[in-house]
Design goal:
Blueprint (H helix, E strand, L loop, with lengths): L1 E4 L4 E2 L13 E2 L4 E3 L5 E10 L12 H13 L14 E10 L8 E8 L10 E8 L5 E8 L1 E8 L4 E18 L12 E6 L4 H15 L4 E5 L2 E5 H4 L4 H8 L3 E2 L6 E5 L4 E4 L4 E2 L4 E2 L3 E7 L2 E3 L10 E3 L2 E7 L12 E2 H10 L4 H13 L3 E2 L1 E4 L1
Parallel strand pairs: 16-26
Antiparallel strand pairs: 1-20, 2-19, 3-15, 4-12, 5-6, 5-8, 6-7, 7-11, 8-9, 9-11, 10-11, 12-14, 13-14, 16-17, 18-24, 18-25, 20-23, 21-22
């Protein structure tokens, strides 16, 4: 039996502060325009043509019901008939109706099995209405499914790669109903920041006013800037957006560190800074091995067998990685570069960042996934 107990070993890093040059981003990549949005659609359908990988009718009776309903609509009466096809599967179909989608346009759909089907590979989705949140039908989907994986099985083994019970149909749905929204009637347009920030919102306000040479924009809060369409002189909101969406700005974001302990991934924001601090990290390995000794009496002699416990314990200390000094104002990227140079493992690096944050020396939002 081996137990690992972690004890600190001192690690200090020499680093100097540095600022990266701010990168400009287009306005369209920073905000969402009021009224320019998509709508989610969902439908319940049937996939046919599967090679024996469909739903088991006994375990998924809803598949039999929808199959019977479909055949009856096509003029085939199966009432009272016992049919057990293995090439049919019930699925949920999802899609997003893009903004300003017009009747006749094509959109992509996703298909996912809801029964005990083992694979949708090679199947064909039969005409499936797609409903919006208001219960109205906005599109109809049909087509051959591109499955996201593959599976194979024999009498004694089965192998699965990817997710064969889910797939997609590119351009698999046709829009039948348009969302009723009079975009041209807007007199003002709100720009919603994807990452709310007062500094970025103020920059957007300033750039818009400079673009039109007059006060046309007003910052409402950290996440909203309002644009007066009439003051811009544009013929319509669409013309106003076409003029402003490619304006370049240098957005400001909060300092943030995101770590994923499962994969050992560390993502560091540009503005993260560290105060002067000393970090201790390392480990010891404690080995405890049980080797019991069995003692038996001599042949034909009175007595009984006795088990004598024997334990062997040892402690192994891993060598240190180095010694240096961490100065105030150091960027986290420089710290991580120094730890990498010293050979610190990603999981140990995450523990170091946690300790720095707990000590109040990591000046950033710390997010753990």
């Amino acid at each position: 039996m081996i137990r690992r107990i972690f004890f600190p070993l001192l690690i200090l890093i020499f680093a100097s502060a540095g600022l990266a040059q701010a990168q400009t981003v287009r306005l369209k990549d920073l905000v969402e325009f009021d009224g320019v949005r998509g709508n989610d659609l969902v439908g319940y359908g049937l996939v046919v043509g599967l090679n024996g990988t469909g739903d088991g009718i006994r375990n998924a009776p809803f598949t039999e019901e929808i199959m019977a309903s479909l055949l009856e609509r096509l003029g085939v009466n199966v009432t009272g008939e016992a049919f057990r096809p293995r090439n049919v599967a019930a699925v949920l179909v999802t899609a997003e109706l893009p903004a300003f989608a017009r009747a006749g346009a094509r959109i992509d759909v996703g298909v996912s099995a809801i029964g005990d089907s083992t694979s949708l590979l090679g199947g064909t989705l039969i005409m499936t209405p797609l409903n919006g949140a208001d219960g109205q039908i906005y599109a109809v989907a049909q087509g051959t499914i591109i499955a996201g994986g593959v599976s194979a099985e024999g009498d004694g083994a089965r192998v699965v790669q990817g997710v064969p019970t889910a797939g997609s149909i590119p351009a698999g749905a046709r829009v039948e109903r348009e969302v009723e929204f009079d975009f041209t009637s807007l007199r003002s347009l709100r720009l919603a920041l994807r990452n709310p920030d007062f500094t970025t919102a103020a920059q957007i306000e300033s750039q818009l006013n400079r673009e039109f040479g007059r006060r046309v924009a007003n910052m409402l809060d950290a996440g909203t800037v309002e644009l007066d369409i009439g003051a811009t002189g544009a013929r319509s909101p669409a013309h106003a957006i076409g003029r402003i969406e490619n304006i370049a700005l240098a957005p400001q974001t909060r300092a943030r560190v995101v770590v994923d302990q499962r994969s050992g991934t560390i993502v560091i924001g540009e503005e993260v800074r560290i105060s002067r601090v000393a970090v201790a990290q390392g480990n010891l390995t404690l080995r405890v091995e049980e080797e019991p000794l069995v003692v038996q009496p001599n042949p034909f002699a009175p007595g009984e067998t006795v088990i004598v416990p024997r334990t062997r314990a040892a402690i192994e200390e891993e060598p240190g990685t180095g010694l240096a000094e961490l100065r105030g104002g150091t960027t986290l990227s420089e710290l991580v570069a120094g730890l990498n140079a010293l050979g610190v493992a990603p999981n140990d690096m995450i523990d170091i960042l946690k300790s720095i944050h707990a000590a109040g020396a990591l000046h950033a939002e710390f997010v753990i996934n």
